[in-house]
Amino acid sequence: MARCAWHLVDLPLIRLPPEHPLSTALASAPAYEATWEPGWPLDVEGCLAPHRRGRGDPALRTAEDGIWRTTTTVDGPASVRITVAGGRVRVAAWGDGATAAGAAVPGWLGAADRPEGFEPGDHSVVADLHRRAQWLRLSRTGRTWDALVPAVLEQKVTVAEAHRVWRELLRLAGEPAPGPAPEGMRVPPSSQRVLEVTDWQWHACGLDGARRRALRAVASVASRLEPGGAGDSAALQRRLCSIPGIGVWTAAEVVQRTLGCPDTVSVGDYHLKNIVGWSLAGRRTDDAGMLELLEPWRGHRQRVVRLILAGGRGQRPPRRGPRFAPTDHRRI
Predict the structure, then answer these.
(1) What is the pTM (predicted TM-score) of this model?
(2) CA nearest 49: which of 256, 250, 189?
(3) What is the distance between the alpha carbons of residues 332 and 327, in angstroms, rounded to a whole number?
(4) Is residue 50 part of a domain?
């Protein structure tokens, strides 16, 4: 069980004109600070890896002073800096949503995960991966919107193409990150801001019509998709799949990140079925075959997938034949 020790700092309400010499200092002072001591060998970058959309992600950066992540909250945008020293995690947050975002950091780093009930069994690959990845904890952000937007952008396109559109969208519609965040960081756009983006702006970002319509559909009901409280993976998936343009793959990708669901598998992924099949059985397979291979770990199937992905590229099948070519929708 993690040992938590929170030390909160409430800043006094001070209003100064932008030209005042104290304005810069106050802007750089965090609105929320806390420390936390996990009870396991924490790997911050490993926990946050599922939330990173490429090396140039404007919403998640590794800098000299720590790992930075931007997020939306019910109170507004926020920037969070996470540093680790002496086994203690230090959290600092800026922006209107600083308190909500800062308090969510233990969940981001796996504090709500319960890996104690997982048994790797007799499968040598899974047992070895589990032994070598004692740091692995499933991240839970509690924010559907932040996971849903990039998941929609990743529908039926290459990873490189999806990450490029994500960067373009944040530059177009995302707010600058609050506080002294690294240059170029942006907060994911709100649902209202997404609805305000015009068709020609979407085209300039390189987004095709199908994903554009799906984004507008989820933005119109975004407030009803946040889990609240403990949340329920099956209920959230049903709500998501009721929206035009959102299928089982997108819903799975969202609940994995929003709720840290240990069992939901991304059925329909172009590569995942073969990675799992090659790792567990030494052969390629389809989605049904992947689920059959993962059945012994029902309840923790997504955990097994994460273990396999954390095991490195050596577990992937050999690549043969032409690669899937990205389509630049800006030129169509």
Answers:
(1) 0.87
(2) 256
(3) 9
(4) yes
